[in-house]
Design goal:
It is built from five helices and two strands, in the order E-H-H-H-H-H-E. The chain is an alpha+beta fold. The protein has a single domain, classed as 434 Repressor (Amino-terminal Domain) (Orthogonal Bundle), CATH 1.10.260.40. It is globular, with a radius of gyration of 16 Å.
Length: about 90
């Protein structure tokens, strides 16, 4: 996670949610469908690692969701003075 003075970028993903709610499958089943190890999928779901673009696009295809729906970036403003009128 990169930290900047003004902003903090938090990578967030919905892999676990889509896997459970839409695919209704186990980590092992999804990992096999996208040709990665179950441990790797677990690390992606727990936001310990980010997937390669290839893996992200395979997830998108299998889940029927866009990469942007599965993976999103959230920016937290740390310096509120950025919003003050000058």
């Amino acid at each position: 996670m990169k930290k900047y003075k003004e902003f903090e970028n938090i990578a967030k993903n919905n892999v676990s949610y889509f896997r459970k709610e839409y695919l209704q499958c186990t980590q092992e089943e999804l990992a096999n469908k996208i040709n990665i190890a179950r441990d790797t999928l677990s690390d992606i779901e727990n936001e310990k690692i980010n997937p390669s673009l290839d893996v992200a696009f395979r997830m998108s295809e299998v889940m029927g969701k866009s990469v942007l729906e599965i993976f999103e970036n959230v920016y937290i403003v740390r310096d509120r003075s950025l919003f003050k009128k000058k």
